[in-house]
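Translate sequence into structure tokens.
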Amino acid sequence: MSGGWTAILLAGQRPGTDPLASAFGQTWKALVPVGGEAMLSRVARVLLASPSIDRVVVLAQEPDALFTGDCAWLKDESRIATAASGFGIAASIARAAGTSIAPWPILVTTADHPLLTTAMIETLIDRIGTADVAVGVVSRRTLLAAYPGNRRTWLRFADGGWTGANLFALRTERARRALSTWSEVERDRKKAFKLIWHFGPILALRALTRTVSLGVAMRNAGWRLGFYARPVPLPFAEAGIDVDKPADHALAERILRARTAR
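Result follows.
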């Protein structure tokens, strides 16, 4: 698959002082440098280099305030637009989705994903199939085989443990139904039990007893809401590593140095 996708790049942050931004003397987390370059700039360059991505929309509370330093080039890039986020990520995405700024299909990712590669993006898009909504995930086995001891939020199902890859594909208009529940899921994204409960009580019970796979759970949960959802397992350990804390930052720096050496 090639071309036609809009990438919405989430570059805002939660209210209050972000600990990682503060540790690096920044107001905005998206401007924290990793591998000598602000995370926002690094992720935007990868998105623009991906064959499937036609345009990028930077979504943040004050997107223009981010276009400074390493990110100054973004304001002059013709394929980049901006949108101001309001109350809640899901509502902000829904407001832009399907408009001339962000036409379907839409890929959503985050600025704190500096290890993102075009291979991750293209693999996700290539494996969506006919799903209305697809979520990139990384298995516990894949991530820990490469980075033993790495701490993530794991959702445990019959087919093993999974963590998110900060990559979401919203392929059709029916994806709006998924956005309507996103805000509740986002609030519980670091609490595995509450997150699983959003699948509904029966599916949650099966998930907690590990008698259902992640794919079946997502498919059935989507059907309840009127859309086809599926996980897309990614074979890249780094897809499951975002940068939320100093330990993540140090790991990302080591990985980027190794990539450069190769």
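Note: The CA atoms of residues 9 and 58 lie 5 Å apart.
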